[in-house]
Amino acid sequence: MGFFDLFKKKQDKAAAAPQEEVQQAEQRELEAGLEKTKSGFFSKLTRAIAGRSTVDADVLDQLEEVLITSDVGVETTVKIIERIEARIARDKYMNTSELHSILRDEIASLMEESHSSQQNFGIEVKQGVPYVMMVVGVNGAGKTTTIGKLAAQLVRAGNKVVIGAADTFRAAAIDQLAVWAERAGATMVRQQMGSDPASVAYDTLRSAVATGADVVLIDTAGRLHNKIGLMNELTKIRNVMAKVIPDAPHEVMLVLDGSTGQNAFEQAKQFTQATSVTSLTITKLDGTAKGGVVIGISDRFRIPVRYIGIGEGIDQLKMFDRREFVRAMFGDEK
Predict the structure, then answer these.
(1) Direct distance between the N- and C-terminal alpha carbons of the chain, in angstroms, rounded to an integer
(2) Quick count: other Cβ atoms within 10 Å of Cβ 272?
(3) Are 180 and 151 in contact (CB under 8 A)?
(4) What's the pLDDT at 92?
(5) Taking the mean position of all CA atoms in its chain, how far away is CA 195?
(6) Using CA atoms, how far apart are residues 319 and 311, in angstroms rounded to an integer?
(7) pTM above threshold 0.70
(8) What residue ranges do the domains of the chain occupy?
(9) What is the CATH number of domain 33-114?
(10) Cα 118 to Cα 162: distance, rounded to the nearest angstrom
């Protein structure tokens, strides 16, 4: 059973709306969540090409500035500009009215390359062995909330979920996680504040195996004060979990705050150097015009974005679909 299939377990099909209606509603919600990013980006683009009829070097300079100030990132922006320059060289002429659709095509192509493996991202879960996800990220990125929302969605789909409160350095983190676990209907394993995080992870996995849990979500401390200390801590947690379930964790998810823009790039850099990150969740995209960070981070780090957060609601943690994201940003292909 793949990880994505866990969401399908025990669904009440009789109560489900027609698939097409559900997809349309989800697309509208995604578009609403990205509205600040979309309106900010296109208002900048409109100003950049005002009064211009053809895409020339000056327009490309303006476009480069628009992309960078939209938090797409310098490296990814350069790739996009180079792709557009190649199209101009091939087609010999390009008018500014075409720029919208061309940008859409090139960003879609870039994200296709970055996420080429994501379509088969469902990991096969061994029968009777919990799927273990270790969740990392700095304090304030939305890590605890993401764990809570994910747990709630999984439990509602009929899965038995165990949460490990391995961020033992902040009492607030443990208490907040306890509230989410109760709300979600998940079991939580905790120790006293200041306890060894690896010990909490070990107890959590032993409990999950003993009770036949489907999924284990392990919270971790979000401090970036010392990269070596962070690396040692995360490595210790991984090693201890592997003693209970040999191939655990099956996934290391990095949670990034999309509203921090370029700071999210630095966080991603630090955590990918500290541990083997296998997926990303980018939160708080509804309250910011910096949603372009999704494009840049997915391209630069080549790590699949699994979820995006587009609101406070429990259902507003959305499984990321690169095609739906581009459609929400640029509209359907003409």
Answers:
(1) 38
(2) 18
(3) yes
(4) 74
(5) 29
(6) 13
(7) yes
(8) 33-114, 128-322
(9) 1.20.120.140
(10) 26
